[in-house]
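Late entry, written up from scratch paper. The run itself happened at the end of the previous shift, but nothing got recorded in the book at the time, so transcribing now.
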Amino acid sequence: MAEGLSRLAEPANSNRPDETAHLVSTATTSPADLSAGAARIQQRHHPINRELLRAALKIVDFAGAAFIAWFTLYLTGHSLLYSPVNLVLPFALMPFALRWGLKASQSYALSYARPVTEHMIRAAIGAGYGLAALCAATALLYGEDYTRWVMGAAYLTFCASIGIHAHFIVLFKVLTRNGALSENVVLVGATPNAQRLLSRNDETRELNIVGVFDDRLSRAPKSMAGVPVLGRLDDLMNWERLPDIDRIVVTVTSDARHRVRELIDRLRVLPQRVVLLLDLEGFDPETESLAEIARSPAAYVSGAPDDNRRATVKRVADIVFASLMLVAFSPILLITAIAVKLESPGPILFRQRRQGFNNQVIRVWKFRSMRDNPEAEERMSQQTVSDDARVTRVGRIIRATSLDELPQLINVLRGEMSIVGPRPHAIGMTAENDEVQGIVGDYAHRHRVKPGITGWAQVNGSRGPVHTREEVRERIRLDMEYVNRASFWFDVFIMVITAPCLLGDFKRQR
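Output as recorded:
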């Protein structure tokens, strides 16, 4: 990492007209128009990314080869489970031979800059090389008739693999062109580093760079490679579209240590991941991904690298568990809805604005447990207290048993929440007359994951309202402990102990 940071260093006044002059607009810089940046934001409604597409391609290749091998073996009159190992082995090795050849030819390195014809040539060479090696070994060790069957299966596997890669590379190109595979990114620093990143991104389109922010606007151009310079760092911190940004890339060179440290200290309070861009000299688009360089673990200064596999597993688990729970609790949901309606006038459900992933504002569903107050849906004016007169009789029961939270399973299915995660706090929530986000410096870091119906803080006793600064600090400590330890089995453990922890605690105000 030290070598990378030392290579990154380049004086702020360096001049490379041959590389960057065409990127910078010569217009006089004017105050930022943040609406220009908002128009460049990609609204992604599906969790599609390059890693997921690459993993899907590998799985389809392997599964297709395995099916062809199994079907050909079946036609020979042999069984996969009951035939001798020596008869099954060539067919069993076929998916692995294909995978090895395709990996060796870099056919899984999806690149927008690489022409479709070049990708298909690589796929043909890789698949042909791996399968041909398997057929040659079979011809040396087995009889002529058996070798013909293996060669026939290899030919079908080769054709299937070519067809699969043709469809995948076209799909990849279309999704990249439409922005479905690109993260929303802003750059901090109108520097030569930023110019080189923009130039590379023009070729790969791996990042959707929304805009550039720089406190030194007098030195900054109006735009860089068509990307607007939107304003100073304060403009970024107060931008209403900031929750839609996935990543913040600091392009100020590391030799300006004081300035880098100052920028990072100010950006660290945001829930977005902050990256210090490493030098792009020597970047090879054939073997490296610009998006991977921009999220290199060595470059992280805030947050942690994305774990696409965990995110996919968590989302699938959320959908499965939420669906099963909705079915299992449907009688309780119906009874509770009737009780709420009969208790007092007003809607059955209460939909309050709360802070979600990346500080996005979401509407969290709950059974109404208080007297109807439409203003409370927009902003919390007062947390509940012991024997709160606003709480109805039915409300006391459903709050004590946490049944009022069950409608949030709808939020889970909508992708706004997870089963397990930090509880979403209401907009305007205060403790000792101060808003909670101002009490703890790391408060925003709890929003790096989706909020949950239950969480590590809740099963450890920090649930319900928080009235003191100490209670806020303890909840954030537990929330950050969950963020750092999060895993599928940790989520399962929290779900298992949620019911006994909540139902066995009648002292805590909820």
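Residues 144-177 form the longest helix (34 residues).
(Scratch paper discarded after transcription.)
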